[in-house]
Design a protein that fits this description.
By secondary structure, the chain is of the alpha+beta class. Helices cover 42% and strands 18% of the residues. The radius of gyration is 33 Å and the shape is elongated.
Amino acid sequence: MQKIKKSIITVCVFVFTGHLSLTAQDGYDIKINFKANVDTCVYLVKYIFDQQYIVDTCKNIKNGVVQFKGKTNLDKGVYTLVSQDKVIYYDLFVNDAQKFVISCDRNDIVGTLKVTGSKDNEQFFEYIKFITAKNNEFGKYREESKKKSKEDSAKFLTQKLTQLNEDVKKFDADFMAKIKGSYVYDVLNLKSEKEPNDIPLASNGRPDSVYQYYYLKNHFFDGVDFTDDRIIRTPFFDDRVKRYFESVIVQHPDTIIKEIDIILGKSKPDGLVYNLLLGYFTYKYEQSKVMGFDKIFVHVSDKYIISGKAKQVYSEETTQKIKERVDIMRNLLLEAKVPELFMIDTTYGKQVIKMGFDTTKTAESITQLYYKNVDKLTPMFQTLYMVKAKFTVLVFWSVDCGHCQTEIPKLNEELKALNGKIDYKVMAVIQKKIMKLGESLLLIKNWIL
């Protein structure tokens, strides 16, 4: 299976290939009588979320006849016919009917589309013929408007566009009602915006935008069956998911986490939709540069991957690596409680030096020396959570750090200005292995093996 463009979610390729073996053995035979076709090679391409993959190639084209044939059924979904120059001709449906004939003329591809043996394509071709005709109609109006004055042209186009939109809206509603219950309906429903009919007015007399927003959000996935793996193989599903999570819902980690759980909860456990979306969300939020969004990655990893609910997506080795990463990240989340820090105040510096810590060379020798003097050292420790203040300023610095020599005095002046105004205390940690008397704090326990 050759890929049209570079995969973003490489993990999903593993998921997809695992499902290819589940197809029936009846085979497929798609014949296209392509009048005036000049291609010597044509591709049959399958949609998979936001990627496209070549599933078959016809190189033996005679008199414009293109044929794709195989002994194993194709995965049900939307496919597209692509030229040797990678130009898309049109989409077509492969569903229950896997053997059918399409005819068209290169000089007017959409307008001449006909099919025998596939009800899904009959319905779909009827739809795209109407939409294409309306687009062509608008193109003619636009050319006609160029002959008018600027003011008349704008008025003319606005009038025609309004009428065209009304025509399309009515046709769309009637057409969807006619084909409801079909796979074509499910696919076209993915691209349909759900708009309220009667919008109440706000206190300012204008349409209530808050009502409109919640209507859009609450009805965004109406009619979408997340247990149907076929929706993955459409050109609209990925856009709908991405728009919802990037543009519709509030961009806050807790909101996104809640919505991810809802969507995955609607999917079939270990189904293709579930596995692909899980891989997509994991990759998306693990790579996110937005502060705080690492919480989403940690949540998804904990609830679905580390818990063993993603075995078809990630290997045991990869799951272990994700766990190791998450175990580090969870302590770095915005609301996470900072791990306790154990340090010895430099007021005990002389006693510590006498114990021999200033001459130790290795972590092993420091460990041995620590346990030898543990009873004496324990009362000397100061910890982060022993600091009692509304705000704790934790500063890591070094006396021989050039950057610190510039910034620490500035910080000192800023903090002096806050004296008496804010309840704060400072815990300063010097990042230096051997400390001298007079330096702020001495790290010891962090070295222990």
